[in-house]
Backbone:
């Protein structure tokens, strides 16, 4: 018998900032969302889509916000960025960043390996299971939650999530 499952395998949902947004508030929220759980949460913002007319302003504010984020002991209250679990994970992440730069990406902050198992990362594209505009992605029992492609399949929460675990039986009588 095959059992139904819902797998959350790490999302890559976009954070979108439109031209009419409060840029300062949006960027503060954007940076906070990127750093949720030290940047290692499936709901942490990873891809940023910004209307071209405000891009440079948003980019400058985002770099400032990220520069202010303190890297250090994850148990310290002032720490916003804790280390990765292992050095090899940090090294793999660094190789991904370097490969992205080699393909045309540009690095605004960091890009070098600091002491310990620390790093940053951002990617771009808009294919996602969840898409929140002018705020960060979060789960809510009223909304279906889950990924697409390699980040998971099916949904949890909301009436869609309940239906994932229900077998539908048809009985037709004539």
Residues:
């Amino acid at each position: 018998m095959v059992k139904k499952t819902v797998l959350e395998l790490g999302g890559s949902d976009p954070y979108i900032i439109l031209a009419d947004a409060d840029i300062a508030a949006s960027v503060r929220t954007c940076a906070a969302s990127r750093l949720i759980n030290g940047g290692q949460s499936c709901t942490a913002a990873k891809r940023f889509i910004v209307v071209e007319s405000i891009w440079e302003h948003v980019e400058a504010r985002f770099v400032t916000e990220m520069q202010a984020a303190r890297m250090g002991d994850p148990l310290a209250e002032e720490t916003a960025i804790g280390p990765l679990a292992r050095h090899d994970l940090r090294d793999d992440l660094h190789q991904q960043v370097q490969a992205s730069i080699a393909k045309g990406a540009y690095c605004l902050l960091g890009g070098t390996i600091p002491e310990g198992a620390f790093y940053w990362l951002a990617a771009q594209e808009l294919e996602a299971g969840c898409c929140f505009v002018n705020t960060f992605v979060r789960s809510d029992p009223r909304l279906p939650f889950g990924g697409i492609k390699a980040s998971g399949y099916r949904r949890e929460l909301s009436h869609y999530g309940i239906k994932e675990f229900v077998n539908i039986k048809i009985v037709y009588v004539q």
About this structure: The longest strand covers residues 14-17. The CA atoms of residues 133 and 158 lie 20 Å apart. The beta strands are 7-8, 14-17, 47-50, 132-133, 152-153.
